[in-house]
Amino acid sequence: xxxxxxxxxxxxxxxxxxxxxxxxxxxxxxxxxxxxxxxxxxxxxxxxxxxxxxxxxxxxxxxxxxxxxxxxxxxxxxxxxxx
Length: 83
Description:
It is globular, with a radius of gyration of 13 Å. The strands form two sheets. Strands 1-2-3-6 form a four-stranded antiparallel sheet, with no helix packed on it. A two-stranded antiparallel sheet has the order 4-5. The chain is built from one helix and six strands. It has a single domain (8-82), classed as SH3 type barrels. Strand 4 (65-66) and strand 5 (69-70) form a beta hairpin. The longest helix has 12 residues, at 8-19. The protein is an alpha+beta fold.
């Protein structure tokens, strides 16, 4: 399956935003508090950088596993992958 191609400007913006993040950094996504648990590209997802968030409460969508690949560890429904 071919990955969707993004413009070089969009890729540069993703890379710039990802470079400002650090694993373990506290974050807030749509009003939900968590911490950055993963930063990087993910096979079988659209090209670009993704951020794995580990929430304090069960407000996420996964356990750190996305498309059958373990990206980070957390309890069920405490993880979420965002851009």
